[in-house]
Fold this protein.
Amino acid sequence: MPRFLLLLLCLFAGSGCAALMYEIVWLQLLQLVIGSSGVSLAVLLGTFMGGMCLGSLYLPRWIGARHHPLLVYGLLELGTGVFGVLVLVGLPFIQQLYLTGLGAGMAGILWRGVICAVCLLPPTMFMGATLPAMSRWIESTPNAASWWGVFYGGNIAGGVLGCVLAGFYLLRLYDMATTSFVAVAINVIVAIVACVLARSAPYSVPAEDSTADRAPGYSAIYIAIGISGLCALGAEVVWTRLLSLMLGPTVYTFSIILGVFLTGLGLGSGAGSYLARRVKDPRIWLAGSQLLIAFTVAWAAYQVADKLPYWPGNLYANVTPWVGFENDIWRCVVGILPAAVLWGASFPLALACVARKGQDPGRLVGEVYASNTVGAIIGSIGFSILGIPQLGSQDCERLLIALAAIAAVIVLGKNRLTWSAAAAVILICLVPPIPWKLIGFGRRLPSTTGRWDLVYVGEGMNSDIAYSKWDGVRPYFHVSGKVEASAEPQDMRLQRLLGHLPALLHPNPQNILVVGCGAGVTAGTFVVHPEVQHITICEIEPLIPPHTAEVFADENHNVIRDPRTKIVYDDARHYVLTTPEKYDIITSDPIHPWVKGIAPLYSTEYFELCKKHLKPGGLVTQWVPLYESNVDTVKSEIATFFEAFPNGSMWGNLDQDGRGYDLVMLGTVEKMAINLNDLQAKLDRPEYAPVRRSLYDVGFASPMQLLSTYTVQASDLRGWLANAQINRDRNLRLQYLAGLGLNVDLGGPIYDDIISHARIPASIFQGTPDRVDAMNEALRVIHGSLSR
């Protein structure tokens, strides 16, 4: 065993820790620029892994074995840290360059790929080169190959630590800059220690035999390990989508899934390294691991579809979020850990299969690692963009089983084809379908009762959706494991309030932007307003508008088919960032802020973007849920909005029991003044008859009833919001706050707390004295706690 091996293993674990911290931070940073759509994220992830592949493949060709491996490794770590700082500091400048390009369509996607390459290829090439560099420390023999697997496993173990440290601590309490600098510090420490060791640790340049034969059938091993990487990342994509339905798609859920998956890879790598030192024919064990992967994929499919969704959950339980996380961890362990262990074992076994005396260890390890990574790139992009949208999760799992069996056959040869194929066919037939109620209700599935009639279910590129009817009558819209919209009275009132309120307060609303299609009810409110000429709906999931047009046509005034409506399929932030259009009204009705990737639509910078895209006198409305939330989350949402719109106000929507349900925030650049006489005169005009009917349908029989939903203005809440955490692009604090509150029910108390700070507005409502007095009296009756 080489000297300093334990210390080097610790250093390599540090490398993995920093690498995963960078990955999490960079994914968040680049999503702010390139968007959160499935295409964008697939391009981003593919570029990240592509850089690692290039680094592992070309470092041994660019840097010869005569250089001390520890010195090379230390310089690579130092370079990674330098690029960690450059990405953090240089991204705003790259964003400005990006804005000069085309925004939407294929041209936009190509630009996104360029941005990913500029940002990620250099540092990820340095990351990918570290394993081949370190592998030169050990002589290239089958026994030594097990130690390469140990380094690989140590790197993954560090990655688990980095994933947990970034996802549950640094990003939750600090920001992306702090997390990046912690990763840079780790790189620098590792680099210094490695360079110091290089001065004292002897190294003899190995005598490379250029005539050394490659292992028999080495190309089959490369292909098999590539398929293994493809299956591993493909499965991670599929299982992340499915597990997030039952756990809730929060940032913590994604960290848990990634952490468990990496833990499995690390454990498997350790086990594979142990076997590589002791077995005579590692090919048998490599092939066996691939065949066992087929069984564990079938096991995971069965658990995710039929067992894990029905485990006792923590909905509204008197437990801390951390107890809920423990439950989530165990679900992931039961479902996906077995397969992850086998994928982890595949890498050192593959190294043992191809290692021979006289070969350059760096080149050998780099080629195997590159083969595995190429497969991973194909798996992550292919299953994200094509697999799930075209085949669905069930058939994707069947495909994974078939590919794992094929990998086993490739390793062993055609003589094992019959029994491998038979096993795969049996397992494929046993894969259960995904229950639509998992897509519809997610973590609430065990407690869901009543008769629900499925209308449509689909798995899209960005989210899973379903449409159903309660008792065959009332339509519901479900997305990613939760009810997002419905024809229930409180939902209809909120969705129409988001549209009618700004449309009636604006003197001439012609050009409208609606963020999020959903059931289309918010967008549909603008159809009945006679001044409206253009309605742009920005929706990230292409499956939603066509089916919304069928299921919710009556409720949304058939907005999808209205000739004034234009639908843009893109990430909303990316669209607002790049569009040259300006609007009279921007109304935003995204999904809950605890859903990963949604926090950028609640940040100060996003609201400032919206403000820049308003025409003079323009208005912005924003939905704020009080249910499935906590006090800190609601304070953060409100304080962030009011920082961009200090003249803003809030309008309440109560549930059927008169308790706080959700809110509408109304933002204006100028101080708001509502002339009650003018508003009544407008609604009395004949062309506004459809508007009156639309309001009456949701319980607003008069303008007074609509305006009596007024709750509070920004100035009233300064004291209450004094300690609120502002959600900014650099920290995206809201998603971490909200992820701790999705299993609580505090809507009523939060609303009562807000109301207790409200005052009768002295300048907002104007008009004749009798109308102003009637308005103030209506507010006192509805909100009894209001006082002058």
Remarks:
- Residues 246 and 443 are 4 Å apart (CA to CA).
